[in-house]
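Run log, item B.
One chain of 450 residues. Sequence copied directly from the ordering sheet:
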Amino acid sequence: MKIHQFEDKGLAHFSYVIMSDAEIAVIDPTRNPRQYEEFAMLHDARITTVIETHPHADFVSGHLELSDAKQATIYVSAAVGAEYPHTTFDEGQEITVGKVTLRAINTPGHSPDSISVLLLDEEGKEHAVFTGDALFVGDVGRPDLREDVGQETATREDLARQMYHTTRQKLMTLPDHVLVYPAHGAGSLCGKALSEEKSSTIGAEKLSNRALQPMSEEAFVAFITADQPFVPRYFAYDVELNRKGASKFDSSTKKVPVLEPGTELEEEGLVIDTRPREQFKKGHLPKAINLQDGPKFETWLGSIVNPEEKFYLISDDEETLRELIAKTAKIGYERFICGALAAAPVESTETLPDLDLAQFKAHPENYTIVDVRNESEVKEKRIFPNAVEIPLPELRERLDEIPTDKPIVVHCAGGYRSAAGASIVAIGVEDVPVYDLSEAIQEFNPPATK
């Protein structure tokens, strides 16, 4: 028996291969199934089983494509209401993969239709549990994503109560030695306090996971519903897309229109310019948003751009452009790209000014400061007492809250989000300079030292 964990760092997502006797089960696969196919070829094994622990909100799964390519059976809870060919897999039901057994445990809480998968080894002993978004290392799944989407919905309070019973009556009753393999790690928006560790054990989680400590149901509900991170715009869209089954990765990404460098953009629409901020500042299209290529590009794209909203995608070079299209496809947004090009368009006439940092430090009161960090970050520490506080995902809709009687300085915590924020603010104001404080924010908010 072999368990292999695959990590998508951009989405802090873990997927898994369980291999026994040349048969493979894949749990919670990414949109592009190639890595699982290559693993199977390398080990001369056959993919027979694909399991979805629930309809994911933060990424598009490749379960349907993998099933079609390998004639593998997809297993998912009946509560999902999946619209693709599948076999239901719920409490107590078992699948044999080679010489091991996979048993379903219904674990609602993050979603009403969540299952965890208990792995029984060749001797029938509990070896590992694949917990999806129910139990993470250091946390449990947030309960506020399924109030209005999916076949089954529930209020966050009801789901929090379900999670209380899931953890206490299902997962915590497993033997302490059982390995815990979650679907996400630190950086995911599916929880609020995920550990950097990629796996754990039931015993270790019972000792250290704050959500698993002794407390009443009411205290648990209050704890789990408080201070959850923001919900990106694309989450509900991805839940429904995963219930229906996404199109094939390669064929879908190849349909994206790639334009010749220098092409004049004809359609009116959103422009996502992913070039480095210094290039963007020197010349960009009117109404372009500077969402730089980076480790969390797909999450911020789906947080700023609405599902079904058409946009152009601009990159530095052709290789990077292809990578960005692939990242876009991970959240199912590739079909909203109306054109992609690997160079600045010919009409890139807009610029952003450089901030005189010394002058800003000397007289910050002469500027309107806009803080685009998340509410939880601001709550933890306000950097500028009189800043206008608007989280980046809400900025496009709340531009009228920003005074325009002074030059505007936009900041975040490290510099990445402020580039996008400054470009969005510049779209919405006229005749007022808009500056990006960028990495200089560290001079006002130095990172904590251990």
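Observations after the first pass:
- The chain has three domains: 2-238, 247-341, 357-443.
- The mean pLDDT is 95.
Flagged for discussion on Thursday.
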